[in-house]
Write a structure and sequence with these properties.
Largest sheet: 5 strands, mixed
CATH superfamily of the largest domain: Type I PLP-dependent aspartate aminotransferase-like (Major domain)
Number of helices: 17
CATH architecture of the largest domain: 3-Layer(aba) Sandwich
Shape: globular
Helix content: 40-55%
Distance between the termini: 40 Å
Structural class: alpha/beta
Bound molecules: ligand F0G
CATH topology of the largest domain: Aspartate Aminotransferase, domain 2
Strand order of the largest sheet: 2-8-7-6-5
């Protein structure tokens, strides 16, 4: 029996949710152009679209918000967050941003030139889009095991060090303005990166004098995986592990909407003073003054508390337990899911579930639609809709290796019964998988297609 740890909290405020009738769901789908991003949230019963900004803040975070200092410059809230950022991540310089992509946008504006390459274990869509829209080429060099959903490697987010070195030599150091690592590897299943691998990556970047930035969105979940799985870390705290990990890098971009459990917020940190000076100017132009960076003072305070709450090990044990519970339950029911369970989400293998559909027929999109149709459940596709692109050299469509559907679990929001409901819906979908038809685009923008694309069933 797969175990479910009791939530280490109780519910003090509730937000009603409801399941619309089947026919209403069908209408909603049609009106949304079969893109679940276009659904009204009130028409969604269980929303697993993202774990970003959707978590429940604690009483301590809400209390901290009441003390938010809304001064334009030099607010107390800024200094409280500064202390937390320094203690958790340790970089010399930092600035708040309104969310992760704003930090990525600033970094890309300053460093990415036409034809540049940015290696990463795997870029998430916003880093990919920010780099691509400036003429750069985001490159994924994760270990091969990441592409095998059944492979049980404990750190499937690791970078392939040999691939990284070969890549640097092939494209030339002068064409790589910075290198990255994403923890956990969201685009590849929320899989963690080991300390050992991070050290090796840092060493390579250092050898070739490539500045190293971590995409830190899920720093705490990664730290807990290291504690659980990497020899030598079992007795270190998640805070110690986080500090050790980030000491290896020259900077980081972060969406605080994940592990810092806030509804809005981000960070850009670095050790290079000159780069920081330029970044600060960019921040002022589009985010805000450097002591608030596009956020309200109260948001800074909520983040300052959340940075530590995300690292709480009792919470993390429950949190990762929830993800593995849903993964195991689905696997037991014969539904193809990525193994082992990642940190923040369950990844359904739509390619395997719907083998009769080719990449161009968007099997993952088909499964996303089916989840809503069957149970009012909203997931997100991480496959050909999100990641296919036209090769700038050949003009041909390049499709991702995996067609995944992600069910991201908001933090401290849903309970065991919600997860069991999802398993039941998936079992019904699986039973009629061979009757599910594919989809085609009727509209797609050039970048970040998935947000606004429209579809039609084939
Ligand atoms: N990096 C990673 C690894 C992410 O997962 C995200 C967002 C971002 C950067 C961008 O941060 O949204 O604050 O601007 N991921 C969300 C998701 C949207 O659903 O996984 P943001």
């Amino acid at each position: 029996m797969t175990e479910y740890l009791p939530e280490p909290f109780r519910i003090k405020m509730v937000e009603p949710i409801r399941l619309p009738e089947r026919e209403a769901r069908e209408n909603a789908l049609r009106q949304a152009g079969y893109n679940v991003f276009a659904l009204k949230a009130e028409d969604v019963f269980i929303d697993m679209l993202t774990d970003s900004g959707t978590g429940a803040m604690s009483q301590f975070q809400w209390a901290a918000m009441m003390a938010g200092d809304e001064s334009y410059a030099g607010a107390r809230s800024y200094y409280r967050l500064a202390e937390a950022v320094k203690e958790v991540f340790g970089f010399e310089y930092w600035m708040p941003t309104h969310q992760g992509r704003a930090a990525e946008g600033i970094l890309s504006t300053l460093l990415v030139k036409e034809g540049n390459y940015i290696p990463n274990n795997m870029h998430f869509d916003t880093t990919d889009g920010n780099i691509r829209s400036r003429g750069g080429r985001p490159t994924n060099l994760v270990i091969d095991e990441a592409y095998d959903p059944e492979n049980q490697h404990p750190f499937k987010g690791n970078m392939d060090i040999e691939k990284l070195i070969a890549f640097i030599l092939e494209v030339g150091v002068e064409n790589i303005p910075f290198g990255m690592m994403t923890v956990t590897n969201n685009a590849g299943g929320g899989q963690p990166v080991s300390m050992e691998n991070m050290r090796a990556v840092a060493e390579v970047y250092k050898t070739y004098e490539i500045p190293f930035f971590i995409d830190a969105a899920r720093y705490a979940e990664n730290a807990y995986f290291v504690k659980m799985r990497e020899p030598g870390y079992e007795n270190k705290s998640t805070l110690e592990i986080t500090r050790e990990l980030f000491a290896l890098a020259d900077g980081m971009t972060m969406s605080a909407k994940k592990d810092a459990i806030v509804n809005i917020g981000g960070l850009l940190c670095m050790n290079n003073e000159e780069l920081f000076t330029h970044a600060r100017n960019e921040l002022i132009m589009r985010e805000g003054f450097p002591t608030y960076g596009g956020l309200a003072g109260r948001d800074l305070d909520a983040m300052a508390v959340g940075l530590y709450e995300g690292l709480d090990e009792t919470y993390l044990e429950y949190r990762l337990g929830q993800t593995s519970y849903l993964t195991e339950k689905l696997a037991e029911a014969g539904i193809p899911v990525m193994q082992p369970a990642g940190g923040h989400a369950v990844y359904l293998d739509a390619g395997k579930m719907l083998p009769h559909l080719s990449h161009a027929e968007l099997p993952d999109q088909a499964l996303v639609v089916e989840l809503y149709r069957e149970g009012g459940i909203r997931g997100v596709e991480l496959g050909s809709v999100m990641f296919s692109y036209e090769d700038p050299d050949t003009g041909e469509m390049v499709y991702p290796d995996l067609e995944l559907v992600r069910l991201a679990i908001p933090r401290r929001t849903y309970t065991q019964s919600h997860l069991d409901y999802i398993v039941k819906a998936m079992v019904k979908i699986m039973a009629r998988a061979d009757e599910i038809s594919g989809y085609k685009f009727t509209y797609a923008p050039q970048f970040l297609k998935h947000f606004t694309a429209q579809f039609e069933p084939l």
